[in-house]
Design a protein that fits this description.
globular, alpha+beta, single chain, 37% strand, three-stranded antiparallel beta sheet, 25% helix
C-alpha cells in the first residue's frame, strides 16, 4: 500500500488554478495527480505554497495514509 505521495504545481496564481491544474491533469498520461487527490487511502494532507527561483511560485501537496 502506498502511504505517501506528493503533488507539485507550478505557474498558477490562485488556489483555484492549482486545483484545476492538478484535477484535470492535462498532459499527464496516468492522471497521477488526480488519482492522488481522490485516493481514499490518504487521510491527511499538508499543503505549502511559496516562491520558486525558476517558476516564480509553486505549491506542494503531501498526502499520507496516517500520522506516525
Amino acid at each position: 500500500m502506498i502511504t505517501y505521495v506528493e503533488n507539485l504545481s507550478f505557474h498558477c496564481d490562485t488556489a483555484l488554478e492549482v486545483m484545476l491544474q492538478l484535477v484535470i491533469d492535462d498532459g499527464v498520461d496516468n492522471r497521477g495527480h488526480r488519482m492522488n487527490i481522490f485516493n481514499s487511502d490518504f487521510k491527511v494532507v499538508a499543503i505549502y505554497g511559496g516562491s520558486h527561483s525558476k517558476y516564480d511560485f509553486m505549491v506542494a501537496m503531501d498526502f499520507a495514509g496516517d500520522f506516525i
